[in-house]
Amino acid sequence: MKKILKTLIPIDIAKGLKVTGKYFFKVFLTANRAKKRPHGTEEYPEVPVKLQPRFRGRLTMLKDEQGEIKCVCCLACEKICPTQVITIESGKKEGRKTKLPTRYDFEMERCIFCEFCVESCGFDSIILNHQFELAAYNREDFSIGMLGKEHNMFEVTPVAKFSYSDED
């Protein structure tokens, strides 16, 4: 009889199943008593996603209280970017002492979301927001700039208008 059981259920597999079963039933029986969810999956998109505070999403430019762009074209973000995805052209505006970007392009398809550009900016003019779903069907959707309705650096991209976490 022992020989038949050894061939049908090897001892090592039985020992492993014993340990696994012990922890499975320990978690399964205590999950509801401790008011914990019995599973770890998120019910996205029905339930809003809770992101970690240090999550790095898409690059976004910020404006000040008057609606002016905070960027002064110091080119620190363009120089420090390891993949060279940021392109800035500067210009002047009447009534403003500092430079103003006339073109600020960001190629999201090559970005590695390292946050070096945000850390190097001394004027807090760019951030990585909490936009987490960045999939697109066209390569053109990954080119984001200051101008344009769909490729705007100041707003959420149309691809991810349902997948944006407002929590900070």
TrEMBL record:
Q: Which residues cross the membrane?
A: none
Known EC number: 7.1.1.-
Does the entry feature the keyword rRNA-binding, yes or no?
no
**Cofactor binding remark:** Binds 2 [4Fe-4S] clusters per subunit.
Gene Ontology, cellular component aspect: plasma membrane
> What are the protein's UniProt keywords?
4Fe-4S, Cell membrane, Iron, Iron-sulfur, Membrane, Metal-binding, NAD, Quinone, Repeat, Translocase, Ubiquinone
Name the membrane topology term: Peripheral membrane protein
**One GO molecular-function annotation for this sequence?**
iron ion binding
Q: Where does [4Fe-4S] cluster 1 bind?
A: 71, 74, 77, 121
Q: Tell me where on the tree of life, at the top rank, the source sits.
A: Bacteria
According to its UniProt record, this protein's enzyme class is translocase
The coiled-coil segments of this chain are: none
- InterPro entries linked to this entry: 4Fe4S_Fe-S-bd (IPR017896), 4Fe4S_Fe_S_CS (IPR017900), NADH_quinone_OxRdtase_chainI (IPR010226)
- The 4Fe-4S ferredoxin-type domain, residue ranges: 59-91, 102-131
Q: Where in the cell is it found?
A: Cell membrane
Q: Which cofactor does it need?
A: [4Fe-4S] cluster
Keyword field contains Metal-binding:
yes
What residues does [4Fe-4S] cluster 2 bind to? 81, 111, 114, 117
Q: How does it assemble?
A: NDH-1 is composed of 14 different subunits. Subunits NuoA, H, J, K, L, M, N constitute the membrane sector of the complex.
What PANTHER family does this protein map onto? NADH DEHYDROGENASE UBIQUINONE IRON-SULFUR PROTEIN 8, MITOCHONDRIAL, NADH-QUINONE OXIDOREDUCTASE SUBUNIT I 2
Q: Which HAMAP family match?
A: NDH1_NuoI (MF_01351)
**Similarity comment:** Belongs to the complex I 23 kDa subunit family.
What's the protein name? Answer: NADH-quinone oxidoreductase subunit I
Q: Organism source for this protein? A: Mesoterricola sediminis
